[in-house]
């Protein structure tokens, strides 16, 4: 297997709300897709949204459960100011900030938010990685 993630699919409880959050709130470009799913182009991969129960059924796992799901998505940016800007944009779009942007123990600057379905996102500036300016 090649080390690559082609698509990240998130289970959502309210497709319309999730699409509004990612498309209008965060500005992700939405692709043409059937009404039961939504796809967004990312930089070299895709984000998919799929109904919570339907995705669990497709994977043959239980749809029950809540709380911390054991992973976070990360979006690295080019500056501390950009971390603050993205965090503010997400909060304005309906995200819940779980950790405000701040200096990190590893020498960077980061904050966390949850999208409307509780998916955890880290927005980070890492001075040890080169990330170009936002598009």
Automatic annotation (TrEMBL):
Domain VOC, first and last residues per copy: 4-126
Domain of life where this protein originates: Bacteria
Coiled-coil regions, chain positions: none
Any matching Pfam family: Glyoxalase
Organism the protein comes from: Mariprofundus erugo
InterPro entries per the UniProt record, alphabetical: Glyas_Bleomycin-R_OHBP_Dase, Glyas_Fos-R_dOase_dom, VOC_core
Name assigned to this protein: VOC family protein
């Amino acid at each position: 297997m090649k080390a690559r993630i082609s698509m990240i699919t998130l289970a959502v409880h309210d497709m319309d709300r999730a699409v509004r959050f990612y498309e209008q709130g965060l500005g992700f470009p939405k692709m043409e897709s059937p009404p039961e799913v939504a796809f967004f182009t990312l930089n070299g991969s895709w984000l998919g949204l799929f109904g919570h129960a339907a995705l669990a059924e497709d994977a043959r796992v239980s749809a029950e459960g809540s709380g911390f799901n054991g992973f976070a998505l990360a979006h690295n940016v080019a500056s501390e100011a950009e971390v603050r800007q993205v965090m503010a944009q997400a909060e304005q779009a309906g995200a819940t900030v779980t950790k405000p942007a701040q200096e990190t123990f590893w020498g960077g600057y980061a904050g966390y938010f949850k999208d409307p379905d509780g998916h955890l996102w880290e927005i980070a500036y890492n001075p040890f990685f080169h990330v170009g300016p936002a598009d």
